[in-house]
Amino acid sequence: MTRAEYSNNSKPLEIAILGAGLVGAVAGIALSKLSNVNVTIYERSEKAREVGAWIGLTESSLQVLRELVDIDEIQRILYRGDQDGGYVKRHWKTDEILAVNLSSTTTDKRLKQARTHRVPLHNFLLSYVPEGIIKYGHSAKNVNVTKDRVDVSFDEKDPIHADLLVAADGIYSRTRRQFTGDTVQYKGAVAYRNVFPMELLKDIPNIPNDTSAWVKDGDIMFFSPLGLN
Length: 229
Fold this sequence. Notes:
By secondary structure, the protein is of the alpha/beta class. 18% of the residues lie in helices and 29% in strands. It has five helices and 13 strands. The strands form four sheets. A four-stranded parallel sheet has the order 7-2-1-11, covered by helices on one side. Strands 5-4-12-13 form a four-stranded mixed sheet, with no helix packed on it. The chain is elongated, with a radius of gyration of 21 Å.
């Protein structure tokens, strides 16, 4: 369907999104702003749930979010520190700053790269998703694409039909594997992550107020506050 045909079509475009995580939430916010569409998000969990540790927001991602949410409001969950959001490389023993990597060139401080935690970011985005469009408890099992529509079947739920399907169902996406054959492969690198209250470090002096990485012989210890919950 061309843009002109879509604009003149009285029947709303049915858009289905698989997954209500970070990507699915953003897709739901953005696509719901289009005219003449019905957007529904299908999430396999029984309620809103996000896991994981920190996440970085680049200047380009914040520019996109500025079009979808209140860019001033999101600042309350972002962290940038003394280096204006840059990543600091430090000597593993002396703590000497070896380099500061700044990926932001903007003068708008609201758009400078920042860090936050996935859970408050997810909750913030969900507050902008139109009420009632997320259907929980829907685990996609199979997708069938025809000339006229997309059919999606679920585990223990009735199938649905849509004009457009957005697969945002995570790293273990059944849909992506169905069409691309992608598999999760071990690449030989191991990362251990933990999130804890900053007050646990209150007795350790001279902790830098920035996002730092201490490097030695290929091993990296990464540390960063994550903003407010």
